[in-house]
Specification:
Elements lengths: L52 E4 L7 E4 L5 E3 L8 H10 L5 H8 L2 E8 L7 E9 L3 H14 L10 H10 L8 H26 L3 E9 L5 E10 L5 E10 L5 H15 L4 E6 L3 H17 L10 E3 L1 H15 L1 H14 L3 H14 L15 H13 L1 H10 L1 H8 L14 H24 L10 H16 L4 H18 L8 H7 L5 H12 L2 H29 L32 H14 L8 H7 L3 H5 L5 H8 L4 H10 L22 H4 L3 H14 L8 H27 L1
Parallel strand pairs: 6-9, 9-10
Antiparallel strand pairs: 1-2, 2-3, 4-5, 6-7, 7-8
Helix pairs in contact: 3-5, 5-26, 6-7, 8-14, 8-16, 9-11, 9-14, 10-12, 10-27, 11-14, 14-15, 15-16, 15-18, 17-18, 18-19, 18-20, 19-24, 23-24
Keywords: DNA-binding, Metal-binding, Nucleus, Transcription, Transcription regulation, Zinc, Zinc-finger
GO molecular function, one term: zinc ion binding
Organism: Lactuca sativa
């Protein structure tokens, strides 16, 4: 960094005192010796950039200088040009190290860097003080990461606003072109892929997979394959392996695409694959199962590799229920559509809200036909403002007329909603909340979901059985159709993947006894015997496999195989009914389970599986902040074989979709920018975005929708005020 010379006051600037001035004889210039010509003016300090540049005097009219390190030529050589361009070249552009750049690296800036308190919460624990220096390469890499993470177009770096920002915030940063950004993205993708590939090879990681298909606006099919695993630190990880173009949605095509991807990554150990319920996926899973058998890496001969998407099944179950209450839902939907028809009507409704209930800034959003969660949220909000709708019907004459007007076909709109419609929607909304919360839990890809599957399915089945016994025919018919769809996928053990029962057993708060207790509440004794026998068989097969694997890794350690059977200390329970819809229906399961555990005595065995199943863990059940992965991390020395098993079982995903798309019955479509790129660049962008994201916060659908409501409310307030001013 160039040091400026200290300022020296010129003689004219020094104040002169007139006191004690003595008169002098007349000045005779002839008696003064003339100074040397070179001492007339003190010479300037030569810039340090000149030690790396040499002047080129070939053309005196257009002087130029050449970098000694890289032979780069610039216009310059006299005072008219200055040295700023030359200094910028040495600091940011010259490929060779030089004294200026070395000096600049020593110049650091202290910044506060946020640090996360853990993978579970993702919240900020505090800050670290870090010294950073300017680096052209680091700034360029950060710019590329910003474009990837924030899904910006490559043209963003050439826009005026970004250039203005950089000129103020970091004027030394040489902004890359969009072509350079494109090249840097591919380089980053290659480097990050190499790191991840080395991780899989080093740790011989077994993964569970999820796969989905996407469509671009040009109707080009893409397949995304995601690996889910629990790393050596017992943290849940999710990595997109590829986002490749496929010619069609046939099962054989999808299966071969998955196989090619696994070979490219060097992954042969696959535990389970979660797919949608399309028939083509059955063919794809069969193809992969055969390959795993050939590679001799299939666990239990691939018997449990196929996992159906639970969120998709819930969508199908809810869809049948919505059809039964369609008239009541449509009546409420039309009422909501009316109040959102114009800012003036919305303002009138907001006045009714203030008159009938406490002021609430949350407004009612119109639902989307392909997203049943939006229908639930619409009904939930509309029911809160029931009195406001009644008041609007009394005060607004256009409200009733809106429903009586006929369309071109001579049909009038369904509505306005009457008391029966509101009652039906209130009951259905309370029931739909169970599916809403279950779907949110199923879709959390950054947390363990395998152990929550059993809880949610039991809760949903219990509520459906309760409505089947309802006195109201419309609710009874709705529940009956939902039960038919539910039983189609989850009615018997042959249609379920029993690995998800094993996941509950590997939750130290519940284990086998809890599974049996819940099954006895929901199924007949014959069905319970069938399910428990299948679960026990699966558990023993898995334990035997991992015991052999543990023995191969640790030949010096002896392993005792388990010959355990299903515990039979659980009493038969019947008459399952949840009396209070507002309470967690699973509280009754757990309270009954507590009583059963209190009856158990001490159980001593040297067998690892039996010892785990019989060990009491009262403290874990009472811990509301229980972290199952942390528990297994601590207990891995106590139960080494089961810990190996838990690492793979708990990594299973019960859903193929993230929270933001779990409620949609429509297709997934790529945005216009990504659709305009070639397939290799699309894959680089999507994969890098997933790999670079360090935050482990799952998308909170409830909070997200509240934010949307807040924005919509602010927008409606602004629009309403503008409209009133225009009217006045």
């Amino acid at each position: 960094m160039e040091k400026s010379a200290p300022e020296i006051d010129s003689p004219s600037s020094i104040p002169v005192s007139t006191e004690h001035v003595v008169s002098s004889p007349p000045f005779d210039s002839s008696n003064v010796s003339k100074p040397h010509p070179e001492s007339k003016k003190k010479s300037r300090k030569k810039s340090d950039v000149w030690q790396h540049f040499v002047k080129n005097n070939d053309d005196p009219k257009a002087p130029r200088v050449v970098c000694k390190l890289c032979d780069k030529s610039y216009a310059g050589g006299d005072r008219a040009y200055g040295t700023s361009t030359l200094r910028n070249h040495l600091l940011n552009q010259c490929p060779h190290e030089n004294s200026l750049r070395m000096e600049d690296k020593k110049q650091k800036t202290l910044i506060f860097q946020k640090k996360l308190c853990g993978a579970k919460s993702g919240s900020v624990e505090g800050t670290n003080l870090k010294a950073v220096g300017f680096s052209q390469s680091d700034c360029r890499l950060a710019c590329v990461k910003m474009i990837i993470l924030d899904e910006l177009s490559f043209r963003f770096v050439e826009q005026e606003g970004f250039k203005l920002f950089c000129s103020v915030a970091c004027p030394r940063f040489d902004i890359p072109s969009r072509t350079t950004v494109s090249r840097d993205i591919k380089n980053l993708y290659r480097d990050e892929k190499k790191k991840l590939k080395n991780y899989f090879l080093k740790h011989s990681q077994r993964v569970s997979l999820t796969t989905n298909t996407w469509t671009s606006i040009q109707n080009v099919c893409y397949m995304v394959l995601t690996a889910h695993f629990i790393d050596h630190e017992w943290k849940m990880q999710k990595r997109i392996l590829n986002f490749c173009q496929i010619p069609n949605h046939k099962g054989e095509t999808i299966g071969k695409a998955i196989e090619m991807c696994l070979k490219e990554w060097g992954i042969e150990k696959v535990f389970a694959i979660t797919v949608d319920n399309a028939s083509s996926n059955n063919v794809a899973i069969s193809h992969i199962k055969k390959r795993l058998q050939i590679w001799k890496t299939a666990i239990c001969n691939g018997e449990f590799v196929h996992m159906r998407c639970s969120a998709h099944i819930l969508n199908l179950v809810v869809g049948d229920g919505l059809k039964e209450l369609n008239a009541s839902i449509v009546a409420v939907r039309n009422a909501v559509r009316y109040i959102r028809a114009s800012p003036a009507i919305l303002g009138s409704f907001q006045n009714c809200v203030k008159s009938t209930c406490k002021e609430d800034k949350a407004i009612i959003c119109l639902d989307v036909s392909t997203r049943w969660n939006s229908t639930f949220l619409m009904l939930d909000r509309a029911i809160k403002y029931l009195d406001a709708f009644k008041l609007l019907e009394e005060e607004d004459e256009h409200y009733v007329k809106y429903f009586s007007d006929k369309d071109q076909n001579g049909r009038s709109l369904i509505g306005p909603p009457v008391s029966k419609d509101w009652d039906n929607c209130a009951i259905f909304c309370k029931f739909l909340k169970i599916f809403y919360e279950a779907t949110l839990k199923f879709s959390a890809s950054l947390f363990v979901t395998a152990n929550s599957y059993f809880h949610e399915i039991c809760t949903v089945r219990g509520r459906i059985l309760k409505l089947c016994a309802s006195d109201q025919s419309i609710l009874k018919d709705m529940a009956s159709k939902m039960k038919t769809k539910f039983d189609k996928y989850w009615g018997c053990v042959e249609k379920q993947n029993v690995l998800l029962y094993v996941a509950v057993i590997l939750d130290p708060r519940y284990k086998m006894k809890f599974v049996i207790l819940c099954l006895k509440k929901l199924y007949s004794l014959k069905e319970v015997d069938t399910i428990t026998a299948s679960v026990n068989c699966c558990l023993l097969k898995l334990f035997s496999h991992y015991a052999d694997e543990f023995k191969l890794r640790n030949p010096e350690v002896g392993v005792t195989q388990s010959g355990s059977s299903i515990p039979e200390k659980c009493s038969t329970l019947n008459n399952f009914m949840v009396e209070d819809d507002d309470d967690d229906s699973f509280n009754m399961f757990e309270s009954e389970f507590e009583k059963e555990c209190e009856k158990d005595g001490a159980f001593d065995t040297s067998n690892e599986l039996d010892r785990y199943l019989e060990e009491r863990n009262d403290g874990e059940r009472k811990n509301k902040d229980f972290d199952i992965l942390e528990w297994w991390k601590i207990s891995s020395s106590k139960y080494p074989i089961l810990a190996m098993m838990a690492r793979d079982v708990l990594a299973i995903q019960v859903s193929t979709v993230a929270s933001e798309s779990a409620f949609s019955t429509g297709g997934r479509v790529l945005d216009s920018f990504r659709s305009s790129l070639n397939p290799s660049m699309v894959q680089a962008l999507i994969c890098c975005q997933n790999w670079l994201r360090t935050s482990t916060l799952a998308l909170d659908m409830g909070s997200l929708l509240e934010d949307i409501d807040a924005y919509e409310y602010a927008d409606s307030e602004f629009t309403w005020k503008i409209t009133r001013k225009e009217i006045q």
